[in-house]
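All the exercises in this workshop are built on plain-text protein records. Sequence and backbone structure share a record, each on its own labelled line. The structure tokens are whole numbers drawn from a learned vocabulary of backbone shapes. The record below serves as our worked example for the rest of this section.
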Amino acid sequence: MRPSGLRLFPFAVVAVGTPLLGVLLARRRFAVITVAGASMEPAYRSGDRVLVRRLGRRGRSGIGRGGVVVATWRPPSGDPPGEPAETRGGPRRPTGEPLGARGWMIKRVVAGPGDPVPEDLGPALIAEAGKPVPRDRFVVMGDNAAHSHDSRHTGYVAARDILGVVVRRLERRRRGGQAGTCGSTLPPSSRRQ
């Protein structure tokens, strides 16, 4: 006969393991990002937090025109629009930012693969106006165009550079842990919009 503790062990493993597995799977599927900057005002303000559904490596099917995405920040491009913007040593970061910090930008999709490139998009895509957006590329802009670093400056955003699609704004937390007004944001290490 087995001691009673050993008989309960499999149930304890399931009771503890199931919620833990759920949390781990949710972290792989979703991310919470804090917005930094004014480029998406009034929809998202600096300091707001958003829930982002990560996109799988295979498919970018959740990205539609008018949707808001979080993508890798890129420096202004002198490269052809179809080519990724590269600089010696990788993207430039502002002075004082940690070397390991990942630069993100939050933007609205204005055109996807096959859609015509909008007119008057600035220097990076001016020659592409009216032509279809290439496969696996997107044109993104901030809602507050005067304060936005977007496809007008960097050209197309490659599908592989998109972390995910914003699902919803999360409630802001007040000091003391009480819930406050809703908001959304990018991490403090991501100062570029």
Remarks:
- The first strand starts at residue 30 and ends at 34.
